[in-house]
Structure formats: structure tokens, C-alpha cells
Amino acid sequence: MSNPLALIVEDDRDSARLYRRILEPTGVDSEIVYSSDTALNWLEKSVPDFVLLDLRLDDDDSGAEILHEIRSDERLTDTRVIIITAYSKLADDLEDAVETVIIKPVKVKQLRELIADLL
User: Fold this and answer.
1) Alpha carbons 87 and 35: distance in angstroms, whole number
2) Which domain holds residue 38?
3) 80-92: per-residue pLDDT in tens?
4) Angle at 14 between CA 64 and CA 34, to 5 degrees
5) Three-state DSSP state, 70
6) Which one of 56, 101, 102, 116 is CB 3.0 to 4.6 Å from 83, fit for a cystine?
7) DSSP code, position 8
């Protein structure tokens, strides 16, 4: 049986690598994408167990578009989405469509425990 797969959608490369390092000890494999277009293309071909989603990508609010695409795609019905953002007001209207919202800066222990609970 393969490990769970997380898609990390984050335009800040340091943050994306940090999230990957946080996930590794939980047994979750991860793919990192840095833009909304790349995320949407990746999601057309793959079905992750989790998506760690930054709402502000490419200098706009395209994370909400990615979330909409995930929630409207039957293949992704079981995909769990965790919003990670510095913009809590952007996340307010999306909370019902995701597992949780984490406000940056991310605490290592918080994210690791959340993923472990979801597994």
C-alpha cells in the first residue's frame, strides 16, 4: 500500500519546502507546485489525499479558484484541503469547504498533529 499523497500549493519556495519537511515524518509523500496554473494542471492528472493550499498565489487570490475546482471535480471528492494563509479574511468564506484553516506563520507541531489526526 502506498503512502498518502499531499499536494503543496505555495508560491513561497521556502514555505513549501518547510511544509514538505513537516509532512515527511507523518509518512505522507508530497508534490510541490508554485503557481495556480501548475496546480490546476497537476490536479487534472492526479488525485491527492491532501492539499495544503495557500490562497494568495501569483499575486492574486487564485487559491480560491483551485479550491472551487477541487470541490467541483468528482474525482477529488475525498481530497482533504487545508488552507494555509496569512489572509484570514480571505479564508472566512471558504471555511465550510475545507478541513481547516491555518493562519501563517505555521507552527510545525500544529500542522504535523493535524495531518496525523486526519490520517
Assistant:
1) 18
2) 5-118
3) 999 999 888 878 8
4) 40
5) helix
6) 101
7) E
